[in-house]
Design a protein that fits this description.
transmembrane, mainly alpha, 74% helix, single chain
């Protein structure tokens, strides 16, 4: 009887564990769907509109949404707002994603070295990190782009020079814990080269938090790109850019609200999608 009583609950417990492991990750799925839709709209821009995003037609300026085949209207120079929105998404998303890759790689490797070796190496890297992080991210990026001049290359360089410190701190903290684990101590005792221990054993186990942070960092970088475009320091005209669209439309906000509001909503929705993806990855990692 005692054996039956002990074995009885095993099936429900096991099935409950399977249900927990297979639980639908709503934030991740919603974020991926929403971000995938945004990317698809950007990639399919030539199929969704036949309008040229940079072609001017002063006779068609300030058309309301839906007038003369312009679904979202036209701006002060007669350019189609929908075309500029879709092609601007291509530019901003590409720059936002690519600009995060370098800080992620560089910061993770530096954090890996600082956390593993410690001592004076960690102290020097820590002082550099403290100096960079003392300034607000956006302010420092704007200052660097202003010094180097507008353009995507300046944005990439500025974001890399400022953004790597966050990944360095995240990975360094993870390494300080991971290097005391049995697998790291066993790898060190086996006589493996240091680079192999760092790249083969430690990095795959400590980089997840940095990748999760990169989802939020893309949002911050995207906001920086939009801000630079608004200030005239972003992508050079006439290339469409959400920040430039907001800057051009803000002076007509009371009469032609769509010129600034629509690209602003695009930034908000994109940020929401990336935030959902980050939350979903955290939830998945904690299951």
């Amino acid at each position: 009887m005692s054996a039956v009583a002990t074995a009885g609950p095993a099936v429900p417990a096991g099935s409950g564990g399977r249900r927990r492991r297979g639980r639908w990750n709503a934030p991740l799925v919603a974020g991926l769907i929403l971000f995938g839709l945004i990317v698809a709209l950007a990639l399919c821009a030539p199929l969704l509109t036949s309008q040229d995003p940079i072609k001017q037609n002063l006779q068609a300026a300030f058309l309301d949404p839906g007038a003369k085949g312009h679904l979202l209207g036209t701006d002060a120079l007669g350019r189609d707002v929908l075309a500029r929105l879709l092609y601007g998404a291509r530019v901003d998303l590409r720059v936002g994603v690519v600009a995060v890759i370098s800080p992620l790689i560089i910061g993770s490797l530096i954090g890996l070295v600082a956390g593993w070796f410690g001592g004076w190496v960690d102290a020097v890297i820590g002082r550099i990190v403290d100096m960079v992080i003392a300034f607000p991210f956006l302010v420092l990026v704007i200052a660097l782009v202003f010094a180097m001049g507008p353009g995507t290359t300046s944005i990439y360089v500025a974001v890399t020079l400022v953004g790597w410190v966050a990944y360095c701190r995240i990975v360094r903290g993870q390494v300080l814990v991971a290097k005391e684990q049995e697998y790291a101590m066993a790898a060190r005792a086996s006589g493996l080269p240091t680079w192999r221990i760092l790249l083969r054993h430690l990095l795959p186990n400590v980089v997840l938090q940095a990748i999760i942070f990169s989802m939020s960092d893309i949002v911050l970088t995207l906001l920086a790109i939009v801000t630079l475009g608004f200030l005239g320091l972003g992508v050079p005209p006439p290339t469409p850019d959400w920040g430039t669209m907001i800057q051009e439309g803000q002076q007509f906000i009371l009469t032609k609200w769509y010129m600034a509001t629509i690209p602003g909503l695009a930034v908000v929705v994109t940020g929401l999608a990336l935030a959902l993806i980050a939350d979903g990855i955290v939830e998945k990692a904690n299951q």
